[in-house]
Fold:
Amino acid sequence: MAVLTPILVVDEIEPCIPFWTERLGFQKTTEVPHEGELGFVILERSGVEVMYQSKASLSVDLPQLAGRGERAVLYMQVENLEELEAKMAGVEPVIPMRQTSYGAAEIGFADPAGNVVVFSMHSGY
Structure:
């Protein structure tokens, strides 16, 4: 089983939050500051998640993606990163394997159109 969550890359996160919370009933479950503003946020409702990351935060967190022009990045939780890597043999990752501060191992690949998919395996999986 995999879980797919869009990460919307924006100039500013704060103006986007009321759209989801006040109009659509989402709750802010996670926020990460970046240089005095929000750098990352997770919004959730009934098992559906939407993530936002600021361009400034993305350029620090994943500098290899800075300037690529992404408006959305897909974040997919998987059960087995080794299987995924085997399936992607011969494809150069745009985000090399890394261990995150929140306990996930991650690797990212671009599809043929240049869209980035970050595959993640959390230690509790």
Q: What stands out?
A: The chain is about 15% helix and 45% strand. The two ends are 10 Å apart (CA to CA). The mean pLDDT is 87. Residues 3-122 form a domain with the 2,3-Dihydroxybiphenyl 1,2-Dioxygenase; domain 1 fold (CATH 3.10.180.10).
